[in-house]
Design goal:
heterodimer, A: 283 residues, 0% strand, B: 281 residues, Rossmann fold, 4-stranded antiparallel β-sheet, 33% helix, 24% strand, globular, disordered N terminus
Chain lengths: 283, 281
Amino acid sequence: MNFFELRKAAANATMIVVTGAAALLTVGVLLFILGYLVWHGAQSLTWSFFTQLPAPVGETGGGMANAIVGSGKVLIIATLVGLPIGFLGGVYLSEYASAGAGFALRYVTDLLNGVPSIVIGIVAYALVVKRMGHFSTIAGGVALGIMMIPIAVRSTEEYLHAVPQMLREGGLALGRPKWRVIATVVIPAALSGIISGVMLDLARVAGETAPLLFTALNNQYWSTGWSQPTATLPVMIFTYAISPYPDWHRQAWAAGFILLMVVLAVNLTARLIFARKRIATGG
Amino acid sequence: MTPFTTERRPEMTTSPETYTHVTEPADPVAPIPGRTLTVSNLNFFYGESQALYDINLSFAAKAVTALIGPSGCGKSTFLRTLNRMNETVKRTRLEGHIALEGEDILKGDVNKVRRRIGMVFQRSNPFPMSIFANVAYGLDVNGLGRRGKIKEVVEESLVKAALWDEVKDKLHASAFGLSGGQQQRLCIARALAVRPEVLLMDEPCSALDPIATAKIEDLIFTLRKETTIIIVTHNLQQAARVSEHTAFFLLGRLVEFDTTMNMFGKPRVKETEDYVTGRFG
């Protein structure tokens, strides 16, 4: 082996080691977070975590039942706000928008996606909290719903765009009006993708904390109805983690663990729905 | 060539001369007896570039007309102007007249036009629903609201498309489970269900194997009895087998239009002869 060949082999080996290490590090970070959370979280997890209200300061025990339900309720409102706007916006973008309108709308959507979540929280505060006069589940839901819109728009558009043009033409050729072909052929063809996109979107906002701080606020007790402040898992994690009490720290770990599991489960379900539909339609 | 050729050659009833370079009717939308679809002075543009030049052509009713020509000659574009499908393409423009039974189809409700002039595409495009729902898709606004009536029409259409025996036990299964040839016949059944007067076929066999192709050709031969069929094909043998009349397109112009027998037997234009004898294309 001469010098040049040796140098080539050395460069090749170096590249493999450097890029491989970076790849390993990426996976490693995720595995470390997962492992760390499971280690601490699973230890702190008790049955009462799911069934009991937070214990008052000084007492040990208690749970986060209200925060689990509260997160669920906030996410329901978020879906009601974000899904229709995002979905219909995506349909418009894919099926109706002219080149100019499409460009403008896509650009604005990407801008909205880049707005810091705390700013969206302020907007929801001004729009809902100020008007209602108090913090509420609805306000938190509106904040997260606004956060859902850009991704819902873009993923809906993408999945509709992937529907072959010849399916649209097939419907139009039978004398069906365009809106009807979109509603009965194009959207059904893309539905599993759209649903999985929205589920991933929901999983993404489920962990948002900042927009909830001054919209849903927090609550030591059950929040009845939709117009009271409510506890949510991310805000509870935040509150408990910065507290000086070791017992609260344990609870925060457990909450983090549960939140991660829920997000993971939603993620996997979404991918499963999409994969199964693709097999069924051969698409 | 093929076993079909001899038995399928239809007898010619009209003198060939009347089909050559159809002259402009005085009134552009006036019907010509025996002609169902009349195209006059048709020009078509994609943006700034012209795709069709001054096409004048009348299609005989209840007969098969084949449109042939090399790729990019405009035959598919022309076919798609006939049911106004090109209107879905942005930045296109059309000049001229198209009349169906004397009625100007370029004006008025496009969906009504498309119910009278059906279309089958190059690649089968079944909808993501059951076989039954596919065939029934064009139906319910057609005045047959009753479920029983819809069933009847679906069966009738599948029988006409020679698919009924293969699917009658799985009408509610997904259309995606069918083979390529079956899917294409399903698309034909779907188009027939609306009872179109004219059926446009855009290279309907180009994605099919010879057996599936033969089935579609058999079908065309039967359908011809009640429907006017206009078929674009790259397969000259297919044009010879299934059609009574053939139109040859080149570079966006209609070069020659005559009975299929004359077009393949004694073409009058040199370009036609070169093309049908395989000297270019």
